[in-house]
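User: Sequence in, structure out. Go.
Assistant: Echoing your sequence, followed by the C-alpha cells.
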Amino acid sequence: MDRHGGVATFTLPGTPAVSALLHPHLAAVAAVWAHWGGQDGFHAGAFLAGGGVWGVLGDKGSGKSSTLAALARRGVAIVSDDVLVLDGRSALAGPRSIDLRTDAADQLGIGEPLGVVGERERWRIGLEPIEPELPFRGWITLRWSDEPVIRPLEGAGRLRQLLANRALLIPPRAPSAVFDLAGLPFFEFGRPRHWDAIDTALEQLLDAISD
C-alpha cells in the first residue's frame, strides 16, 4: 500500500475476479487506510435503526453476516458487512453487499452464487445505496442462545469486545477514542441457531434499540 500515492497493489497467483477484490481483499485496505487517517476500524458489520448506526460484533461463526442479511430482507438499511470504519462518532458506509455462506443463503432464500472466493464458497447480496456518513449510536455483540435475549453489556466487557474486534490488532492511535466508543449504548444479543426463530429475535432486537 502506497500511502502518499493513494494506491493499493495486490500480488496474487492469478487475476482475481472483481467480486474477490470487493471482498475480502479490500477489507484489509480499508482497515489500514482508516488507521493512517486517524479513524477507527473494526471487524464488524453495521445497520441503521433507531436514529443511528449500530455496530455488530461477534466471533467468527457467530452469525454476523446472516443477521445483517436477515435485517436487509426486512428492509433495514445496512451500512457495512465486514469492516466498520468510524470517524469519531460518524460511521462510514462500506461496499454495498453482504457475503453469505451457502447454508445461510439457502435458508434466507437470497443471494447470488459467486463460487469459491477467498477461502470459501460465497453468496452475495446487493444492497441499496446509503448516505456515505451517518451518526453512530452504539454496539451489539452476538452470541448463540436457546431463546432470544437482549441485555445491556456492562463494565470491562465492553472494552474487551472492542479491542478484540479492532480491524488491525495494534494499539489504537487514540486510546481515549476507544473508551469514548465503549461508553455508547452496548447490548448483547443472543439468538437461537434455528432459522425459524430469526425474525422473532430480530423484532425484539429492533424494539430494544429503538427505545
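User: And one key feature?
Assistant: Residues 50 and 209 are 6 Å apart (CA to CA).
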